[in-house]
């Protein structure tokens, strides 16, 4: 059974950095994209960054220039490097793998990131 295992969350001061990682145990075929989502307290889950099978990378406007997604489809692990963190980045971060044929989304267990002084 495929599982996505996340690591790297924690507490960091404003302006600090953290790197999240997400490793898949078990093979996943027909991957369309790998992505990071986050769910701030009391809000809905939102897309943070995505990398597609052909290497197209997109970021939410709120993290452009501060976050970097790496480790694409061909690799078994994907990272989210988060720099210049702000209190509004506080959320539970989830990694996602979207596959096609049949369409399905795999999710990690979530990693808490808290940005506070």
* SSE order, one letter for each helix or strand: EEEEEEEEEEE
Identify low-pLDDT runs: none
Structural class: mainly beta
Radius of gyration: 14 Å
Q: What is the structure about, briefly put?
A:
The chain has 117 residues and is mainly β. It is built from no helices and 11 strands. The relative contact order is 0.32.
Furnish the topology, listing elements before pairings.
Blueprint: E1 3-7, E2 10-12, E3 18-25, E4 31-39, E5 46-52, E6 57-59, E7 67-70, E8 77-82, E9 91-99, E10 104-107, E11 111-115
Question: Which key terms come to mind for this protein?
Answer:
single chain; about 120 residues; mainly beta; seven-stranded mixed β-sheet; four-stranded antiparallel β-sheet; 11 strands; globular
Question: Can you give a write-up of this model?
Answer:
With 117 residues, the protein is mainly beta. 0% of the residues lie in helices and 54% in strands. The chain has no helices and 11 strands. It has strands spanning 3-7, 10-12, 18-25, 31-39, 46-52, 57-59, 67-70, 77-82, 91-99, 104-107, 111-115. Strands 2, 4, 5, 6, 9, 10 and 11 form a 7-stranded mixed β-sheet that branches. Strands 1-3-8-7 form a 4-stranded antiparallel β-sheet, with no helix packed on it. A hairpin with a 4-residue loop joins strand 9 (91-99) and strand 10. The radius of gyration is 14 Å and the shape is globular. It starts with a strand and ends with a strand.
